[in-house]
Amino acid sequence: MELVDGGEVSGDPEPIVVGMGASAGGLDALQRFFDHMPAAHNLAFVVVMHRSPAHANLLPAILVKHSTMPIVEASDGMAIAARRVYVAPPGTLVDIADRRLRVTRGPGGASLAIDHFFRSLARDRKERAIGVILSGSGSDGTLGLREIKAVAGMVMVQDEASARYAGMPHSAIATALVDYVLPVEECPQQLLDHVGSPVAARRAPRSVDGGTVGVLADILEVLRRHTGHDFAPYKASALRRRIERRMAANGIDSLEAYLRLLGEKRAELDALFHELLIGVTSFFRDPQSFDALGAALDRMLAERPANQTVRAWVTGCATGEEAYSVAIALRESASRVGCNSRLQVFATDIDDQAIREARRGEFPDSIAADVSPERLERFFTREDGVLQIRREIRDILLFSEHNLLVNPPFCKLDLISCRNVLIYLEPEAQNDALALLTYALRPGGLLFVHEINTRNILFRFYMGYVFPSLNCIDEGVERWLLPHRTAMYTDAPLVELRYFTFFPDFLPQAIVRLLSPIERLLEGSPLQVYSAHYMAAFRKP
Fold first, then answer.
1. For a disulfide at 417, which of 4, 314, 365, 496, Cβ 3.0-4.6 Å?
2. Which of 452, 399, 446, 444 is nearest to 425 (CA)?
3. Known catalytic residue at 23
4. Same domain, 247 and 306
């Protein structure tokens, strides 16, 4: 086994990192994979395999007989270099950040280690992330591959027929997000073809220039006619990255050629549609945000008469994790404050396939990484390796297909969660969506959004209160406000922010500028904001 110094980041071009997950039967799959994998000049491999920490790590010594690349046991702080294979020690969790591996030991490391690394890979490598799932029982890797696809990465899975244990491949393939399903011997060549394509080889996503805007619009129009859904309001840069992934999967290096392919292959239109729909979804994503939401719900439900139904709406619910999280948060809050009102949650998405999956309420064991043992015990049952949402939560939810930008909204709502949609929309479409959402809330209702959208919403809420005739707040214009009193705030997880008072008669143009930090706004607006690190759960005036 060749030893490699992992202390310093080399000056070589930044490698493409391939995360490989395997479990039962995975040793044979890994051997066959590396038997066919040459030392590609720009690839680095990180192998995460379920093994008992009670035994010595023999995997590097075994794999070195099947690879022309050096095999290294990963260690904390090790720099990643191309043409290397890094093997995670048994019973550890491995992260990647800035071309370095972080290795930690802890309980549960062996069972969810693949999901953990795939998620880290998605965060660090973005659209250059590649995940490969080989033979194994269970479902580890499924949640992680969703996050890789959410950032427009690539996922490859060993086909079930060639896997000794098909549990992990089957769970991954069932997501319908996998780019390639192949016998393990064919995976290396497909991997080389993918990273060697002009589209996949780009180090960073290109901006959409004037020369491609027309072709991009034509592609979206063809897709609209096929699916009935218009993606034009979505951010062009994000759309371009998604389209380029489908181009790479088809070996196409120009938008014009891909447009022709869409005209010839109906199946590719369906594949592109589902590619564009991929979003990050998990249970209780951003736990601090849900802590703040829970505190805001406590206050709202404590004041609720028992005969009034509490109505909530989760937009862009995808496969249901966010919707079930909100329903559980509502149930927990109602229990804490003794609220006996009926709870009702509408969960919507434009993807009918995702809605069907969400209705089942079945999730892999690996969600234990996101759901506390107490919540697993209270709100889930375990059957045949699958976690099923209990009926008391499923009965709260009504899933339906719905387009936020086209269909009429639900109304008189106490809570709207819109964390999975706004961040993908162009500013004008964001403003339209916010106008609709604020209309749908009853007075005193809560709007639960991603922290990225906080500033835009602060402007819309406050300006809508002070100057109702203003439809939107244009970016890039200087905005001024007069401070009256700085808000008091503490280190507590829940902070109620207050606002100063505007003086429109002193500033006839009625234009304001948000000061920093965000707490230094003004008192006088009925808008209340519940914040944990600038997560927003806005309460409508």
1. 314
2. 452
3. yes
4. no
> Tell me: the pLDDT tens digits for 267-309?
999 989 988 887 668 899 888 888 888 888 998 999 888 888 9
Structure tokens that stand for 58 in this block: 């023999």
Cα gap 442→428, rounded to integer Å: 24
CA distance 67 to 64: 5
Q: Are residues 248 and 296 in the same domain?
A: no
Q: Choose the catalytic residue: 23, 67, 111, 525.
A: 23
* d(C-alpha 75, C-alpha 102), whole Å: 7
**One of 115, 140, 179, 351 is an active-site residue; which one?**
140
Whether the full predicted model's pTM is greater than 0.85, yes or no, is no
- List % helix, strand, coil for the chain (3-state, nearest 5): 40, 20, 40
**Domain harbouring 343, CATH code:** 3.40.50.150
pLDDT in tens, 85-124: 999 999 899 999 988 999 998 665 456 899 999 999 998 9
CB 352 within 8 A of CB 317: no
Structural domain boundaries enclosing 420: 287-462+532-539
Residue 478 belongs to a domain? no
Q: How far apart are CA 146 and CA 118, in angstroms?
A: 9
The strand pair at 413-418 and 528-531 is best described as unpaired
Using an 8 Å Cβ cutoff, are 145 and 129 in contact? no
Q: 94 lies in a domain? A: yes
Query: Are residues 224 and 157 part of one domain?
Result: no
My answer on whether 172 and 305 are in the same domain is: no
d(CA 296, CA 226): 42
Write down the residue that tokens 């005193």 correspond to.
Answer: 444
CA geometry: angle at 352 spanning 347 and 355, to 5°?
40
Q: Is 140 a catalytic residue?
A: yes
Catalytic (active site) residue 469: no
Question: Which residue type sits at 356?
Answer: R
* Cα–Cα distance measured from residue 167 to residue 513, given in angstroms and rounded to the nearest whole number: 54
